[in-house]
Amino acid sequence: FYLKRNELNEHLGKDEKVTLGFAQVGNESAWRTANTDSIIKAADHENVDLQLKNAHNNQEKQIAIMREFIKQKVDVIAFSPLVEHGWEEVLQEAKNAGIPVILSDREIKVQDNSLWTAFIGSDFVEEGRRAAQWIVDHMESSKDTAHIIELEGTKNSAPATDRKLGFKEVLENHHNLHIIDSLLGDFTLGKGKEMMEKALQQFGSEIDIVYAHNDDMAIGAIEAIEEYGLRPGIDIKIISIDATNKAFKALSTGKLNFTVECNPLLGPQIMQAAKELKNGREIPMRIITSEETFTQEEAKKEMKKRNY
Ligand code: GZL
Asked: Where does the UniProt annotation locate this protein (predicted)?
């Protein structure tokens, strides 16, 4: 009788070394830095041959990197898609080459979901709901109106689309909460600051709350609010998502009011999935990471335990 090589290895309890091509979206935020570190560390720890390339927030570049991996005949491709659309062609090429694809941290919208094998990341709609729920729970009275500025992440990316959706879903039941403007901050501190400056020029002290889709844009908004002469966290409340140490610092100084965690430490799960796929084992289609939320009080305790 004949055992396929990988079955023989499995039988002997020896998995074959995996070559994983990872097309990282960019280095736009502190979250991304922690995510990339986690992937590199986990590959090293799991003895995975990792080829990680950075697409610098450019979809054409990300597709070109994936094509390189197909040419190199890597065992598995993983990527964090910059935006939700435009992946059919390169994913079909990977499928034709027999290379399974893991979606890391961000999902995509394709007609044929057999073009990707697994998604490892968070529920962004829930993150948006949690951000809005904090506002609802902290309004003096449900009669008070609140004017909200939304700083959106990268346009058409899954986190921006879904965090917007989840936030709006909660606001639908609270007509006293109004988003008076949504501006594109592209998940970066610089752009977040620039958009907040614009919002302050237009609305000034009429703004009660800022909802930033990530901590980096929230920090940018804090700088803009201070330069404008108002007190962030007091005159204008600020809520963000990610829970990186930037947020914990701002929470502990009272300049940020709340942050919703989005876990960047996906490396171990990605390596595990890649090894399962390489050795012909099935893996679940969706692996959602667990997450918390942090107030100013909770931040003071939590920040000692975190290293990103
Ligand atoms: C979320 C991730 C987002 C982070 C941002 O999983 O895709 O992209 O929230 C990062 O900080 O830029």
From this structure: Cell envelope
